[in-house]
């Protein structure tokens, strides 16, 4: 039997932004990774907090990038939020939508009526990411929630990745209403809530799924909450310093520079690596020395820091280690 990491799982659930693509450009190697999984007979699913595209649009976008995808393989927070609202309110009920047209379409498809003003007397406010969201619709939302409308957020990602660096995400827009209303949303649907993960596993009849993401506070925490193994890839938001500082509920099973880690031995990615030396690196107490693959050094330091050595006490004792810690902001 293959010792490839992916061979130990019967479903791989990918996050999208920062894992498969950045905004609208594929991350190198992503298409090849998905095709290789399919060739090996491993089902895939895509679970995203981004509420600005519908499942069919996401599948079309992926396919256009050379990443094979079907609409029923895509689970997003817009569809999940609309489904929750349809369970709570009668057909035709007015729902104020803060977000992109995709979110309005999801609300409409479940039989509810998207509205845009407080005067429409919405029974709920659903808030998802949309690049055109501005003060006016946020004001209508604030008035509606204050009047008693249920406030549902598709997700609370503070940022979203881009080729130019992290940009404000839906969580930043939710924070505007949180500040104005001095309260939290009544419900957050997307990750780190486990629903997208458990639904993906259920649809595939998966008994041993693996979640792959780039964010510790959503992808990895959601997988931990769902009782699933997870792999952090360092192509998006969360970097080495954040991983080292992660509390137990945000610690992945594996870490890899990119999706190629799916096809290497699991023991080359497993966290933490509790050893004094590996792959040319050595850890002596809080001191890193040697040289080699940066991910191996990261795994060694996770073992050290997660076992109690304070992050701020890490030091370097070789030029390569010095450069690495500096690059990580340590």
UniProtKB/TrEMBL annotation:
Q: Kindly state one GO CC term assigned in the UniProt record.
A: cytoplasm
Q: Which InterPro entries does the record associate with it?
A: HAD-like_sf, HAD-SF_hydro_IIA, HAD_sf
Name one molecular function that GO assigns to this entry: phosphatase activity
Q: Which domain of life is it from?
A: Bacteria
Which protein, by its recorded name, is this?
Acid sugar phosphatase
What is the organism of origin for this protein? Answer: Paractinoplanes toevensis
């Amino acid at each position: 039997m293959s010792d490839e990491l992916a061979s130990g799982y019967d479903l791989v659930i990918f996050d999208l932004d920062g894992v498969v693509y950045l905004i609208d450009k594929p991350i190198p190697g992503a298409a090849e990774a998905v095709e290789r999984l399919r060739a090996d007979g491993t089902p895939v699913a895509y679970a995203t907090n981004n509420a600005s595209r519908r499942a069919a649009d996401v599948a079309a976008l992926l396919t256009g990038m050379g990443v094979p995808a079907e609409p029923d393989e895509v689970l997003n927070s817009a569809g999940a939020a609309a489904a929750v609202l349809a369970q709570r309110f009668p057909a035709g009920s007015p729902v104020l939508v803060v977000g992109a047209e995709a979110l309005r379409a999801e609300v409409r498809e479940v039989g509810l009526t998207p509205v845009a003003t407080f005067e429409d007397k919405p029974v709920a406010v659903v808030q998802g990411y949309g690049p055109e969201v501005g003060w006016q619709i946020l004001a209508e939302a604030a008035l509606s929630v204050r009047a008693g409308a249920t406030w549902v957020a598709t997700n609370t990602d503070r940022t979203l990745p881009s080729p130019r660096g992290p940009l404000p995400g839906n969580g930043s827009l939710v924070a505007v209403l949180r500040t104005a209303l001095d309260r939290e949303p009544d419900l957050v649907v997307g990750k780190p809530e486990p629903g997208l993960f458990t639904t993906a596993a259920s649809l595939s009849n998966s008994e041993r799924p693996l979640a792959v993401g780039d964010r510790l506070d959503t992808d990895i925490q959601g997988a931990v909450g769902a009782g699933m193994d997870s792999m952090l890839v360092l192509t998006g938001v969360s970097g080495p310093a954040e991983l080292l500082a992660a509390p137990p509920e945000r610690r992945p099973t594996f870490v890899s520079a990119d999706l190629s880690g799916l096809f290497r031995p699991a023991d080359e990615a497993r966290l933490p690596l509790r050893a004094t030396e590996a792959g040319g690196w050595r850890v002596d107490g809080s001191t890193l020395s040697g040289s080699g693959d940066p991910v191996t050094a990261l795994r060694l330091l996770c073992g050290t820091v997660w076992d109690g050595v304070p992050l701020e006490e890490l030091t370097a004792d070789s030029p390569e280690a010095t450069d690495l810690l500096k690059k990580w902001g340590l």
